[in-house]
Design brief:
Oligomer: single chain
Number of helices: 3
Number of strands: 5
Strand order of the largest sheet: 3-5-4
Strand content: 15-25%
Helix content: 25-40%
Shape: elongated
Order of helices and strands: HEEHEHEE
């Protein structure tokens, strides 16, 4: 901790205590000041596939789907459930919630995508 922090931090802590507020300050040495509990950030699990790989694969198959049209998306080297999930998320974002239905076709290793005009929900 540098000199400015050594001088300023105790003053700030005493002012916050006088105001009777809950707070948490972690100084540059990693020491916590205050009574508020600090929760560590959760770490994301590593991605199965590089960012954008699934979208780059399926987008050409479904990008131009109109209402009441269907498409087959081959999964290739990707897991079917990962592909289905990515398609459903993309469709919800671009077409709206409930306007897409997906189905796994395990024998042909494809995801069937059906776009509807109205929400399915």
């Amino acid at each position: 901790m540098n000199n400015v922090e050594r001088i300023t931090l105790p003053k700030v802590v005493s002012m916050l205590n006088a105001c009777k507020v809950q707070f948490a300050i972690i100084d540059s040495d990693g020491k916590q000041h205050g009574s508020l509990e600090v929760v560590a950030k959760k770490k994301r699990s590593p991605l199965k596939y590089p960012f954008g790989a699934l979208a780059n694969h399926f987008t050409p198959y479904i990008r131009n789907l109109q209402a009441d049209q269907a498409a087959e998306v081959p999964c290739g080297q990707y897991e079917m459930e990962s592909m289905r999930s990515a398609i459903a998320g993309w469709a919800s974002k671009h077409w709206g919630n409930g306007t897409c239905s997906t189905m796994l076709d395990k024998p042909s290793n494809t995801v069937l995508v059906f776009r509807t005009a109205q929400t399915l929900i």
